């Protein structure tokens, strides 16, 4: 006989599996859209271009793909720092708000998230704990 705790755990696991299934369906739909049209959504494409422009501007100083040597915890701390800066800018008054600065902060947050994703996707062993 299943206890209440076991039933609750089973229900949570079932909901998680349903969420994963829904996410996988969305990924397949996005992949199909890409195959059908040959391009990502225009807003995604423009955002990716902005991300690449920032990354490329750092290549000379830090080397291409320099984040591969960074600990994900360090990258996450940098992402949170940029996220806080973005939040502060978005809370400014109309008179003080700087659109270009807010857009840059959004790109910086996304770049750090991409770096973490790339490290998770490609690493076979944990990195050194510090990034230099």
What does this structure look like?
The chain has 132 residues and is mostly helical. The chain has two domains: 1-38; 40-132, no CATH class. The chain is built from four helices and no strands. The protein has helices spanning 4-37, 42-62, 72-90, 99-122. It is extended and about 60 Å long. The N and C termini lie far apart (56 Å). The mean pLDDT is 86.
Task: Based on the model shown, name its key terms.
about 130 residues; mainly alpha; 2 domains; extended
Task: Give the helices and strands, then pairings.
Elements: H1 4-37, H2 42-62, H3 72-90, H4 99-122
Q: Summary?
A:
74% of the residues lie in helices and 0% in strands.
3D shape: extended
Task: Provide the succession of SSEs.
Answer: HHHH
Derived structural class: mainly alpha
User: What Rg is obtained from the alpha carbons, in whole angstroms?
Assistant: 20 Å
Q: What does the average pLDDT come to? A: 86
